[in-house]
Amino acid sequence: EVQLLESGGGFVQPGESLRLSCAGSGFTFSNFAMAWVRQAPGKGLEWVSGITGDGGSTLYADSVKGRFSIARDNSKNTLYLQLNTLRADDTAVYYCARAPGSSGWPWIDSWGQGTLVSVSS
Amino acid sequence: DIQMTQSPSSLSASVGDRVTLTCRASQNIGHYLNWYQQTPGKAPKVLIYSASSLQSGAPSRFSGSGSGTDFTLTITRLQPEDSATYYCQQSITTPLTFGQGTRLEIK
Q: Going by C-beta distance under 8 Å and a sequence separation of 6 or more, which residues neighbour residue B29?
């Protein structure tokens, strides 16, 4: 069974940093592109960032470009999202997500349970 | 960015009804359109990918159609567990954008 388990969320002040982690199990981690999708309280879904299976290509939403950084360690079956210079509008549940292939994101076929990031002074 | 617009924003229907949800893209996205279902407090899950392909494990009462800019998700024989918010998403280009969602209430 595919499982994605996020961790690292929490409460921070504007300007601070956090690192989210997502541990994958039940599949060959390196064979799948991964992504982060977030959902602000009471709002819709926003794709944040994606990374190919080999980690060679990364993409970001304009809203986080230059502040967030996605990475993966295939030896540890773990996906990361480094969140820097956090703002109040970054407050959201962050979902770890898996694409069905290694080199793109045609759809998301598995999701984690989400981790809450709350940014407030 | 490609804008995705869903309609209606919300609707209410009864068990056994047939409902149709609509999603419109701001430009031609071919068949690169997916539908997700999200119940409160839970992660989304994919129902339909590539406009009309039913995800393994999704109930057969869900079906998708359309191409280009206009797409529909149809749910036949509504069940109480279909109460959820439904999102469409385009995947022809990054950033992968979602519609704002349609909230479906079962009376």
A: B2, B68, B69, B90, B92
How many Å apart are CA B77 and CA B82, to the nearest integer?
10
CA dist A34 and A20 (Å) reads 14
Beta bridge partners of B22: B7, B72
- pLDDT at residue number B64: 98
Best residue in B55, B96, B102 for a mutation probing chain A (most A CBs within 10 Å) = B96
Q: Which 71-100 residues of chain A touch chain B by CB within 8 A?
A: 95
The mean pLDDT values, 10 residues at a time, for chain B of 107 residues are: 97 97 98 97 96 96 98 97 98 94 96
| A50-104 pLDDT tens trace | 999 999 999 999 999 999 999 999 999 999 999 999 999 999 999 999 999 999 8
- Cα separation of B53 and A42, whole Å? 29
Least Cα separation, residue A62 to chain B (angstroms):
8
